[in-house]
UniProtKB/TrEMBL annotation:
InterPro entries in the record: MeTrfase_RsmB-F_NOP2_cat, MeTrfase_RsmB-F_NOP2_dom, NusB-like_sf, NusB_RsmB_TIM44, RCMT, rRNA_ssu_MeTfrase_B, RsmB-like_ferredoxin, RsmB/NOL1/NOP2-like_CS
Source organism: Virgibacillus indicus
Keywords in alphabetical order: Cytoplasm, Methyltransferase, RNA-binding, rRNA processing, S-adenosyl-L-methionine, Transferase
Family membership: Belongs to the class I-like SAM-binding methyltransferase superfamily. RsmB/NOP family.
GO function term, MF aspect, one: rRNA methyltransferase activity
Catalytic reactions on record: cytidine(967) in 16S rRNA + S-adenosyl-L-methionine = 5-methylcytidine(967) in 16S rRNA + S-adenosyl-L-homocysteine + H(+)
Known role: Specifically methylates the cytosine at position 967 (m5C967) of 16S rRNA.
Keyword Repeat: no
A GO cellular-component term linked to this record: cytoplasm
Class of this enzyme: transferase
Active site: C382 (nucleophile)
Name of the featured protein: 16S rRNA (cytosine(967)-C(5))-methyltransferase
Lineage per the UniProt record: Bacteria, Bacillati, Bacillota, Bacilli, Bacillales
Annotated S-adenosyl-L-methionine binding sites: C259, S260, A261, P262, G263, G264, K265, D283, D310, D329
EC number assigned by the record: 2.1.1.176
């Protein structure tokens, strides 16, 4: 693939991700496979696509400072400027003159002469004058929003909920790449043996913090390893691994996973149960049920029965007090996984947080009667927001006096989490900057009567 083709591909991918037609990691993976992109170009493509999305608002601030007449730019022109400026300001892989030349060539081809001279002029101005100094922005939240490219509503919510310093660290951390984690299928291989084998094959790996099944991948493409291809490993963030650890499901129990696709946690729970007992796994979307089934089959786990169903209607198919354990890994705004899916921060709106928190409470209310007395229920989300996390739990407890937060949950947390700043009386909020995990919330409820 020529440099010009590569840059056109990058521009097309960015436009697709920005229009919310696919998560960045899936769009990038598909493009690499489809276009048979070589490893060197693969690195640049991934870096520029992720980096441009991650820094979109910062780049827009730079672009707007060079535009005197406030005219609306075509989407592709703005995106071309963003990706070019991203490379000029944040990368040193390609010289500025080459970046500008490629951008002008693309602008000539996609637009008209006026467009290419506009692109040329703006990028040359940026090259000569440098980008504007953001430290001069007066408002703390606006400055943090521009410098770390998070919409102001998110910054304002986080500052109100967690304070300025925590918010600043979180926004800065969200610009980094996270270290990938995988879970070992213990019925197939021991973690120590997997670590030894992967190390001998040149991977940089080490045990993860919160689960005896977790491995952190610091170097190497684990998707290409034999262990992954043989179904001995599943990709899962360390925070998500905590869920099955804390659910305390045992062999022969009957478990409900109310929002299960793609099945990451259901399969982990099945492993914890030594593939004995039963897990009823549901998801609202019929097409996602196959993802659960495929994941279970890939890991040779047979106790998961997956079906499509709105978790709010499960009382129509299951009797009261049917389950020893229930997991509600609820649909959420996803503000905890911005590092891996940067587009989330631009696509989600504050109204989504309000809408989702109502659905989360409805799901909890609907599945609660299905839990046996003394049974345990985990509520979790991959978001950082009190309205969807602590407040949902509090509202649920207030309305259901037969449920309580299980105090044993806090004692059973891994030692490294015992002093976490995210522990409140409602549960545990993990922040991405604290342990390198996704932003994630979980708590455990117990049914008393
Ligand atoms: C956070 S994801 C679950 C991830 C999954 N537990 C795992 O570990 O792989 C939330 C899931 O809830 C599903 N969902 C959304 N609304 C639902 C509802 N009303 N009932 C059941 N599932 C729902 C979504 O389709 C999505 O797959």
């Amino acid at each position: 693939m020529s440099d010009k083709q590569l840059r056109n591909t990058i521009l097309d991918l960015l436009l697709r991700i920005d229009k919310d037609t696919g998560f960045s990691h899936l769009v990038i993976d598909n493009a690499i496979k489809k276009n048979k992109i070589n490893p060197k170009d693969e690195g640049l493509l991934t870096e520029v696509v992720y980096g441009t999305m991650q820094r979109k608002l910062t780049l827009d601030y730079y672009i707007d400072s060079f535009i005197t007449q406030k005219k609306k730019l075509d989407d592709w022109v703005r995106m071309l400027l963003r990706m070019s400026l991203y490379q000029m300001v944040f990368l040193d892989k390609v010289p500025d003159h080459a970046i500008i030349h490629e951008a002008v060539e693309i602008a000539k081809k996609r637009g008209h002469k006026g467009t290419s001279s506009f692109v040329n002029g703006l990028l040359r101005n940026a090259q000569r004058q440098g980008v504007p100094d953001t430290s001069k922005i007066n408002s703390d939240t606006k400055r943090l929003s521009v410098e770390t490219s998070h919409p102001e509503w998110i910054v304002e919510r986080w500052v109100a909920e967690y304070g300025y310093e925590t918010t600043k660290k979180m926004c800065e951390e969200n610009l980094n790449r996270k270290v990938m984690a995988v879970r070992v299928q213990p019925l197939k291989i021991k973690r120590d043996d997997a670590i030894e084998l992967l190390t001998s094959q040149g991977f940089g790996v080490k045990p993860s913090l919160f689960s005896e099944q977790g491995i952190l991948i610091e170097q190497g493409n684990i998707l290409k390893s034999d262990l992954f291809k043989d179904g001995c490993l599943t990709i899962q963030d360390q925070s998500s691994m905590l869920v099955a650890e804390m659910l305390r499901a045992e062999p022969e129990m009957v478990v409900l996973d109310a929002c299960s696709a793609p099945g990451g946690k259901a399969t982990h729970i099945a492993e914890k149960m030594h593939n004995m007992g039963s897990i009823h796994a549901y998801d609202l979307h019929k097409k996602k049920v196959k993802l659960i089934q495929d994941k279970a089959a890939g890991l040779t786990l047979s106790i998961i029965n997956a079906d499509a169903m709105d978790a709010r209607k499960l009382q129509s198919v299951h009797k009261e007090e049917s389950f020893d354990r229930i997991l509600v890994d609820a649909p959420c705004s996803g503000l905890g996984v911005i590092r891996g899916k940067p587009e989330i921060k631009y696509h989600k709106q504050e109204s989504d947080v309000h809408r989702l928190s109502s659905i989360q409470l409805e799901i909890l209310e609907s599945v609660a009667p299905l839990l046996k007395i003394n049974g345990l229920l985990i509520y979790s989300t991959c978001t950082v927001d009190m309205e969807e996390n602590e407040n949902v739990v509090q509202r649920f407890i207030e309305g259901n006096e037969n449920f309580d937060i299980d105090s044993a949950f806090f004692k059973e947390l891994p030692e490294s989490l015992q002093a976490s700043q995210g522990i409140t009386e409602m549960g545990l909020q993990l922040f991405p900057q604290d342990y390198g995990t996704d932003g994630f919330f979980l708590t455990r409820l117990i049914r008393k009567k």
